[in-house]
Inverse folding.
């Protein structure tokens, strides 16, 4: 018997006035895995999370989480899920320990158990020293950890993280990733929304790319990358006159058709196992006396996947491509 | 990952109790949370205590000498008006607090928990009731310091305090409705306040209504704030007037009957987005 997925959404629709926030969204996450929901601002990610966490009723479609219907069994479900949000919903005028004890009591834990659980989580999230300080004085990373701790009071089997690292500095982001991976290795199912390509790539077993309220592609990070092809060399020659010579040198390495942008003296060479050929390519170009402005080996990012799928272009200059996907929100402009 | 091992552990068991018991308990938990915040938000503390003290001093010493026809010392006349205005102004923090919680995502947090849905509203109106009770005590003390001399049986004074608390509770539900109907905290603040100025000043709270023009006087003598002020004043000065007491109670109950459902509806509409 196949076990039910921890999260299953079918045909979810939600409309706000003129805006179709969700237009038949399907999602599926097996127990103990991370589902990354990736999309730009306004794609419908937050609306989906709000429906799956019982905060919002869908106009159409249905969803089950942890085996419970999100509309008809909403109250039972609330005891079995955790929600940590983009805006770190902790009370900034309470201390860390007061926040956790309040949430524990609202989960209807006995007073003693609530206090004990709060202490436990504060210790695990490295917040014991700050426990008696008002949250207003916390850093962004500390707030997120407290917010996450609050969502873990009941050790829920399914956890929803709505853009858990948006606005965090790189160090706090890495520590959040560690915590999330730890939860998953302990069997928690996580649905994670993100605008960060690297985040989905790092954490998610399965990725659903969402745009305009529906899933436009899904699969593993590798599946998605395969859709836009493999690695390639990006080469910029110093002198336009060398372009033809450079193409001749590179032809033996190319696994397909090279893309040439003459104006920018730019050559894209699809390759296999590029890292191992890098030295040889540099040697050959040097022997042919072709000076270079730039040479890089580029692996496809989820950003490329997104662009390939939606036909939208990112508002990123070509020479900034190294930074794309590395903690930079996906920006796009329809052209 | 050692660190996480005890985070994900066998489920913790919630305590089983009847739903209405949890509705009360959850409301108390949230009321306690709201009350804890007050001393930590200087604005709120100043708003709820210093501001009414300034009103007492202003009316007692600046305007008081020029106001006649009150039939008793002005400070004795004034205090009933101050009490009523203070609790009514104080009740606006219900809507502001709710709008604040909504804006900061706390109401989403609460709604994602298996707690009683009613507790967000009842907890907030309850904590504002407690706060207003505290403020009445502060104002009573300030009044005594500037010459206020309540008269008659102590029991009457408690009855007056009871009526003021009921007023505070009723106006809190109006405030909650406004706070959930507007879209920002700032709007909750101004929309919650603006209509209370004419209501409290065009009344018998600070001056006798006899000198007002006829049209205003007709309004001032029949609107609920005047009725409440007159009832409280009678109880504090040993001239209890049962007509205004009953009319005040009727107004408060009427406001609750109308505005509790309205507030709940506004809350549901607002959170269904």
């Amino acid at each position: 018997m196949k076990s039910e997925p921890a999260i299953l959404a079918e045909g979810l629709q939600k409309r706000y006035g003129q805006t179709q926030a969700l237009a038949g969204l399907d999602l599926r996450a097996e127990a103990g895995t991370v589902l990354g929901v990736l999309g730009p601002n306004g794609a419908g990610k937050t609306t989906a999370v709000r429906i799956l966490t019982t905060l919002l009723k869908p106009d159409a479609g249905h969803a089950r989480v942890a085996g419970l219907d999100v509309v008809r069994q909403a109250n039972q479900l609330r005891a079995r899920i955790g929600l940590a949000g983009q805006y770190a919903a902790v009370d900034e005028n309470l201390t860390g320990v007061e926040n956790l004890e309040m949430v524990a009591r609202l989960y209807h834990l006995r007073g003693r158990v609530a206090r004990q659980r709060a202490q436990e989580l504060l210790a695990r999230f490295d917040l014991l020293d700050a426990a008696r300080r008002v949250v207003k004085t916390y850093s962004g990373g500390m707030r997120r950890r407290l917010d996450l701790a609050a969502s873990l009071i009941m050790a829920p089997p399914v956890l929803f993280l709505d853009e858990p690292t948006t606005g965090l500095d790189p160090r706090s982001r890495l520590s959040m990733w560690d915590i999330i991976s730890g939860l998953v290795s302990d069997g928690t199912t996580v649905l994670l929304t993100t605008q960060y390509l690297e985040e989905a790539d790092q954490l998610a077993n399965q990725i659903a790319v969402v745009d305009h309220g529906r899933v436009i592609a899904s699969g593993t990070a590798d599946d998605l990358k395969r859709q836009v092809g493999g690695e390639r060399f990006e080469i910029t020659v110093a002198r336009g006159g060398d372009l033809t010579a450079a193409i001749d040198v590179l032809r033996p390495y190319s696994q397909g058709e090279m893309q040439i942008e003459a104006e920018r003296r730019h050559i894209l060479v699809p390759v296999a196992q590029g890292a191992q050929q890098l030295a040889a390519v540099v040697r050959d170009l040097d022997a042919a006396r072709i000076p270079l402005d730039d040479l890089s080996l580029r692996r496809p990012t989820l950003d490329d996947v997104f662009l390939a799928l939606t036909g939208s272009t990112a508002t990123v200059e070509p020479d900034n491509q190294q930074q794309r996907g590395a903690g930079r929100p996906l920006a796009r402009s329809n052209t | 990952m050692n660190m996480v091992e005890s985070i994900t552990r066998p489920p913790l068991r919630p305590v089983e109790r009847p739903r209405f018991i949890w509705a009360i308990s959850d409301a108390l938990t949230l009321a306690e949370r709201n009350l804890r915040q007050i001393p930590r938000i200087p604005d709120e503390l100043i708003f709820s205590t210093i501001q009414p003290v300034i009103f007492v001093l202003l009316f007692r010493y600046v305007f008081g000498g020029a106001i006649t026809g009150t039939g008793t010392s002005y400070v004795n006349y004034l205090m009933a008006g101050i009490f009523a205005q203070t609790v009514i102004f104080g009740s606006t923090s219900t809507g502001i607090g709710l709008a604040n919680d909504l804006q900061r995502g706390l109401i989403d947090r609460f709604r994602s928990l298996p707690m009683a849905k009613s507790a967000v509203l009842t907890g907030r109106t309850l904590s504002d009731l407690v706060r207003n009770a505290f403020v009445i005590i502060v104002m009573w003390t300030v009044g005594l310091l500037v010459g206020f001399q309540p008269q008659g049986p102590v029991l009457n004074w408690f009855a007056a305090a009871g009526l003021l608390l009921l007023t505070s509770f009723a106006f809190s539900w109006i405030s909650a409705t406004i706070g959930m109907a507007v879209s920002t905290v700032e709007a909750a603040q101004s929309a919650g306040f603006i209509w209370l100025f004419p209501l409290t000043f065009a009344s018998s709270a600070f001056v006798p209504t006899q000198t007002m023009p006829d049209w205003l006087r007709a309004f001032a003598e029949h609107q609920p704030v005047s009725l409440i002020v007159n009832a409280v004043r009678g109880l504090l000065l040993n001239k209890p007037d049962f007509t205004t007491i009953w009319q005040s109670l009727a107004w408060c109950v009427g406001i609750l009957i109308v505005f509790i459902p309205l507030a709940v509806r506004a809350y549901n509409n607002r959170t269904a987005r």
About this structure: Residues 1-6 of chain B have pLDDT under 50 and may be disordered. The longest helix of chain B spans residues 242-271. Chain B has one domain: 18-271. The interface with chain A takes residues 1, 3-12, 14-15, 17, 22, 26, 29-30, 33, 36-37, 40-41, 104-106, 108-115, 119, 271-273 of chain B (CB under 8 Å).
